[in-house]
Amino acid sequence: MNAPLPVLNDPPRDEPERSLILDPRTYEQALKCVHCGLCLPACPTYVLTGHEADSPRGRIQLMRGMVDGAIELTPAVREHLDLCLDCRGCETACPSGVIYHELIEETRWRMEQKGQAPLSFQGRVMRWLSMNLFVHPTRLKLAVLPARLMQKIGLYALLRKTGLFKLLPMQFRKMEQMLPAQGKLWPARLPQRMEPLNKAEGQPRRVGFFAGCIGSVMFDTPNRQAVELLAAAGAEVLIPHAQVCCGAIHHHSGAPTPAAVMAKRNIDVFLPKDGPGVEFITTNIAGCGAMLHEYDHLLRDDPEYAPRAKEFVKRVKDISVVLLELGLPKMNHPVNRTVTYHEACHLVHGQKVSGPPRQLLAKIPGLKLVPLPESDLCCGAAGTYNLTQPQMATALAERKLSNIATTNAEICATGNVGCAMHIQSEAAARGQKITVVHPVQLLHEAVFGK
Ligand code: SF4
Ligand code: SF4
User: Fold this and answer.
1) Which of 47, 83, 100 for a ligand 1 pocket mutation test, highest count of atoms within 8 Å of Cβ?
2) Which pTM was predicted?
3) What is the pLDDT of residues 221-246, one digit of tens each?
4) Binding pocket residue ranges, ligand 2, CB within 6 Å
5) Ligand 2 centroid distance, CA of 114 (Å)
6) Which of 304, 324, 344 is the endpoint of a domain?
7) Domains of the chain: total
């Protein structure tokens, strides 16, 4: 007779008490680590602190130790785990194929479930805002409305000058600092619903556009430009209005159940059961794209959605990949600027997309693309990390900006809304002159002019 399988939440009495219980499939990731340390130089928090406990190898040991009952979950341990950006730089560097993000994400979920080491008051407020405001574009638009109005009449700049905002706790100061200046990332008007676009004759390739929740408010201009570029490249672009947040904020904050609900909704919307769906599901936002790629993992135990999630993931492609695949429209307008490229973690490490954005930029007439040192090291944005860990986020932004300064570029292109807002706002706070844009903004200029 087969021995009964161990019950996940009920360790035998003679085993030490464990601070953490992980799905055995996730725990296996910790066992794959051979402690070689090759991931250390790729880890932004280790690079900055030099502490083993702030490295991937150290954190894996902490999580494994908690599962084995050798390490207790103390506030210090929690701090080292919380400081992780979930940037996945360690995964790219790891020769043993440790899928680190599965470990840290499940650990966060289990800690949240058990109410272990609860968050500070400010942390709880941030968590509430992330899950109840940021993921709802209409609520977010309404929330930023007063700031936009104040910007328009000049009151905002005045308030900034008084130094009043400096009295806010750091997390809220950071949130205020990230509001884009009018006319930069966000346009003068409030974003309206985007409509499908098809300029192609015959039987065009069908592309579903995923706008993102924060992206559809803060990245409205690049989103519209991406849709115009896709249509000019011969695609029929569908923008289903029933799409919802990708679930990344919930998933990365230890709330996989609502994330799974959102994943199922997006699968139903882009790949309906009773139709062929779209050929590609594309997005301008690396963070969303990486999360859409996770749907097969998130829904692996759901008998109905697991096979559909696999099919969905196959069709998710970053905008740079889809534009290269479709073939770029004619570029008649030279963009005579020096540009450097920052690799968003969730594009380079999360989706392993590194070459395509650079290839696109290199094709733009007049544009001089210059390499950025440490281009794949996290800038500190990492979803809502810059709000929950503002000190580390700021230190990483400073490092990124110093690297950008060495290139003498006037523009930094990057494929993620969070990186763009973070780098731009930190540059403004330091008085460093750099314009941060999405690569599609430069392509759009080259195709359609200013
Ligand atoms: S995900 Fe990023 S911050 Fe976290 S351990 Fe890996 S490299 Fe370090
Ligand atoms: S590179 Fe991979 S195997 Fe080596 S220490 Fe890091 S996580 Fe472990």
Assistant:
1) 100
2) 0.85
3) 899 999 999 999 999 999 998 999 99
4) 33-39, 56-57, 60, 90, 93-94, 96, 98
5) 28
6) 324
7) 4
183-220 per-position pLDDT tens digit: 544 454 555 666 777 777 777 889 999 998 877 777 88
- Do 413 and 297 sit in the same domain of this protein? no
Instruction: Identify whether the C-beta of residue 83 lies closer than 8 Å to the C-beta of residue 392.
Output: yes
Query: Which residue in this structure is represented by tokens 């104040």?
Result: 150
- Among all bound ligands, the one having the nearest atom to the CA of 42 is 1
Domain span holding position 136:
126-177
Residue with the smallest CA separation from ligand 1 atom 7 is 43
Picking from 280, 309, 324, the residue at the C-terminal end of a domain is: 324
In a domain, residue 360? The reply is yes
For β-strands 235-238 and 197-198, DSSP reports them as: antiparallel
189 within domain boundaries: no
In a domain, 379, yes or no: yes
Q: Are residues 318 and 418 located together in one domain of the fold?
A: no
Is the pLDDT at 144 greater than 80? The verdict is no
Q: Which secondary structure element, helix H or strand E, spans residue 377, and what is its range? A: none
377 lines ligand 1 (CB under 6 A): no
CA of 396 to the centre of ligand 1 (A): 13
Edge-to-edge strand list for the sheet holding 197-198: 197-198, 235-238, 205-210, 280-283, 316-318
Same domain, 348 and 315: no
Q: What is the amino acid identity at position 317? A: K
